[in-house]
User: Fold this.
Amino acid sequence: MEDVIELARRRGFLWPSYEIYGGASGFYDYGPLGAALKNRVEDLWRRFFVIGEGYMEISSPAIGVEEVFRASGHVSHFVDPIVTCEKCGEGFRADHLLKEKGVDTDGMTYEELDEELSKRKVRCPACGGGLSRINTFNLMFKTGIGAAGRTGYLRPETAQNIFILFNRLYEFYRKKLPFGVAQLGRAYRNEISPRQGLLRLREFSQAEAEVFVDPGSKDRHPRFPEVSHVKLRLLPGDGEPRELTAAEMVEKGIVAHQYLAYHMVRTYQFLREAGIPVERIRFRQHRKTEMAHYACDCWDAEVLTERYGWVEVVGIADRTDYDLRSHIRESGVDLKAFLRFDTPKREKRVILEPDMKRLGPVYKDKAKEVGELIRASDPGKVKGDGSIDIVVEGERLNIEKGMFSKKTVEERVEGEKIIPHVIEPSFGIDRIIYCILESARTTEERNGEERTVLRLKPAIAPYDVAVFSLVSKEGLDEKAFEVFEMLREKGFLALYDTSGTIGRRYARADEIGVPYAVTVDFQTLEDDTVTIRDRDTMKQERVKIADLAERL
Assistant:
């Protein structure tokens, strides 16, 4: 890890934030090469899920009002166990302190964690002082919105905005299930004591897709045959490792259904395309004791790192109808989809009939809308006093008894309203970038010298190509710059470097992951050809400048 971080700092991939003020743990700046790498990884994700799957992307505010996170469960559930040093005042996650001692804390209650800390005589890692008993710490950053100070939070995940927009998105997708929506953006978690570099940040990038499906069709993904043969390494909740195809994992009931298995395979394919070696990837199922409050099944894509062992980089969860149902309850807004029957039915049902003569004088220009909302209301929601609550333009109104009546009608029923279930693959971009850097960095001996190479896949490398002149004389620099400009005009992200010997320039390009280097030499001036050098094999090929862009 130290070698990776040192390379990242020295070459402009990653820098600790706020260095001139002493720094702040849990925050990193992406330097010029890091930002380029990050953009390439995000573009690769878009190629898989926005272009490849058709999950159109939205972009929403990073600050949400309190009601959103009360409904989602984050206000009550998004907490960690914290212990505080009684000497220096530093706070630490209790479960992390025990994991560093080799204790499996999954499923432990706060009382059990307290007992284990006491039994093992765990002290403050910073100063050796005694630790307090465990308290609850909510990980969301709280803020005030506007002069009135309406309570808000920085979002801990990008998903909630998508659920809130369900009705508009459902209209956008022509009221047909299934459909997917993507969002790639910043999320915020006020981690207690982040000490793992890019693996545990207080501000980080998430790439999430929310796939809305008919709960009765989760076992029938339309594109499942494309991935059914792909094998994945699994660590199910029972702890017995297996290697199975997507079809086998569903047939044996190890993975709940085709939709979950399909997105596990697509996640695997994305990680491979990003440069993570196959032997470093596995999928681990959450045990019931660690399952998120919103999920009925969840699998983590984990990558084996040299420093941290197995690290979660993607979570693929079946969120059921938890989120939409919670927002329906909190907001009073109907967030349902219409499921059409194969054959229409005739049914008797009770409806609410508004009395427009009584509503008109009371609600005036809103009377028509109030009447429509009464008709759309569930008769079962009528209160004991005969009134019913509806929401008009965000305002909750109580409609008194006598302004509507119950009526039995027989009608042709084309379908029914359902609350869709949600399948969510959620990618931690920063963690993936760390794993890419660790996997890609290699050292080797060449002619008695150690050579450091960052073997990034060309699709995500911060530069597509480097352009060099063999020496800085007799017009070679000028010719090399012409080639550089030509490549940029054709859409290549190119590096032009004239500093030092050609060997040193090759070494610098190798170390930052540039896959190809183009060299202009004296022969170029004679026949307009250049050499292309492959970073990994170091083989060279002579190419006409006119054919260079196409060859690259």
About this structure: The chain has four domains: 2-78+139-322+423-430, 82-135, 341-415, 463-551. Residues 463-551 form a domain with the Rossmann fold fold (CATH 3.40.50.800). The first strand starts at residue 14 and ends at 16. Residues 347 and 410 are 5 Å apart (CA to CA).
